[in-house]
Amino acid sequence: MTAKFAMVIAPASTPAAPQRDNDEAAQIAARVASGPGFWTEWLAELGRQGLLEDLLAGDVIARALREAPTGHKYDRVLTAKMTVVCVLVACLFPGAGYDTVLATAFGLPGLKHRPGAGTPTGPALSQARKLLGEQVMQRLFELDAAVADADLGIGLLWKGLEVTAIDGTTMELARNGVLDGEFGVPAAGARPLLRVTAHVRTATFRWIGAAAGGYHDGENALADQLEDSFRPGILNLADRGFFSMHRWIRFSGTGADLAWRIKNGAKSVPLKTLKTLPDGSELVMLRESDGMRTRRRKETGSPRAERLPDTTARLVTFTITTATRSGRTKTTVMRVLTTLLDHQAYPARDIAVLYAERWQIEIAFLHLKRTVRGSRRPLRGQSPDLARQEARALLLIHNITATAAARAAGSAGLDPGLIPFTAVLGLIRSHVAADTCGPDASGHPAGPPPNDEPGTPKKSPTPSTSQSRISRNGTQHRKLKGSARCPHRIHSPPPQLRIGVLGGVTGVRDPARGVYGGAGMGGIHGLPARASWMAVRTWAPCLAAVDM
């Protein structure tokens, strides 16, 4: 199955460069002279939400700020909410400096600022991030991720179950002794690494939960923190390194179903076959061995812990043969343990085919690390709290993009994997950069913040005394030519985020804007492999095609 992917692009909502003061004054005078009927819609436009808030689930920013503590105690220009928005913009444009990030964030619609306040500088944002801490961003991610695909009208089910997968990956951090000591390094001279074990919805690539730790923290230990993200209606897939009797009993006790690969060694998982079923699978009894109990006692610090109760499960064994272009073949025996005991409702062959969906989490990690963050680009945070804060924000930006792609796929009746993630992310970036209500604080023409080559982001330069002022609470601000907010910029509201799939149309070309590309990969629920690369050319920095 192949599909052509195209974006129908509407004109930009803002001009390519900031208007001069005289032009703005003339436009305002003409608007006022025309009477209220001509500028009522413009006034309503000033209060609308920006795209980032529209794409988040409900009013999650306000909820996260209410439920998680912050260090913001004064009426600063960089309030807790504004700092959250800046962190998200910084992760949306990981190659942009702090001054560019601030100019973009403070130009977004729907954000209220103190009259006459200027746009803060990079050092002020660094301080505000420290005050925000990691808990707000963690809670924000949890609230957004908790919204099920079904509640958004997106996603696919396998025999009535939502298929998910768990696995782990690492992210590079900045080089400094504090991060080295907190997170650990893989080898002398290497960058410290932050390890993430995550839980993803395989149909839409949306994260449902994530746990962050250091390089030397095992994936299994972090996976134990994901238990709360399991619930009835979920069928979870996991690789062979995640199985333990204790974890199996706890996670299945949430009501979720499991289909976890186990090692092939006879002693790796002590089990006894109770019955061979007609489809070739086996009904087995799991029993915790003495070695497994000793290891669990050591890990939990309970030297007198009792043996876990025997548990009934079903074992599906199958072989996979792969062939290379040179003609070499390799056969692998796979053993998948599952809580789905009904062989008629869930045949062994169907479970064997479904297990390939576990690889969708590898694609999600590829999107997160290469497409959203950028290859070999370390996180900006210079402290453990800021590194974890940024990791959560990256996961949130990934979820925002995956949600937009899945909604478009649902509107078109397609597998979400056929919508290019790269194209959707590029168009969201263009829309956010274009959907600003004020001139850039730096005086540069409006447009997307630059994504520099991979490497450590440059620090924002500190303005001279003549260019900045220090407020009573110690926050440094850069003076603007005109207001930092919308009242002096006249423009029409940008179109809603729209993404469409049109048969036989590959896109339209605009030499001024360049090309956004995307890929469809993998295979899901009986559909053929997502194999076609598709290029999407944008007509202007705004989005279009199927209403969200």
Descriptors:
disordered N terminus; 16 strands; 3-stranded antiparallel sheet; 548 residues; alpha+beta; 16 helices
Q: How would you state the average pLDDT, rounded? A: 76
Q: Uncertain spans, ≥5 residues at pLDDT below 50?
A: 1-20, 438-450, 452-497, 500-548
Instruction: Supply the helix-strand structural class.
Output: alpha+beta
Largest sheet: 9 strands, mixed
Overall radius of gyration: 26 Å
Helix content class: 25-40%
Within the largest sheet, what's the order of strands? Answer: 5-4-3-6-7-11-10-9-8
Distance N terminus to C terminus? 24 Å
Q: Into which percentage range does the β-strand content fall? A: 15-25%
Number of helices: 16
Shape: globular
Number of strands: 16
Structure report:
This protein is of the alpha+beta class and 548 residues long. Among the domains are: 15-137 and 383-494, no CATH class; 261-342, no CATH class. Helix content is 31%, strand content 18%. The chain has 16 helices and 16 strands. It has helices spanning 21-33, 40-46, 51-55, 60-67, 80-92, 98-105, 122-132, 135-145, 177-183, 219-223, 245-252, 290-300, 348-354, 360-373, 384-412, 421-434, and strands spanning 5-6, 119-120, 162-172, 193-201, 206-214, 234-238, 257-262, 271-276, 282-286, 311-323, 329-338, 468-470, 476-478, 500-501, 515-519, 533-537. It has a 9-stranded mixed beta sheet with strand order 5-4-3-6-7-11-10-9-8, with helices on both faces. The protein has a 3-stranded antiparallel beta sheet with strand order 2-13-12. Strand 8 and strand 9 (282-286) form a beta hairpin. Helix 5 packs across helix 7, helix 5 crosses helix 15 and helix 14 (360-373) packs across helix 15 (384-412). The radius of gyration is 26 Å and the shape is globular. The relative contact order is 0.19. The model is unreliable at 1-20, 438-450, 452-497 and 500-548 (pLDDT under 50).
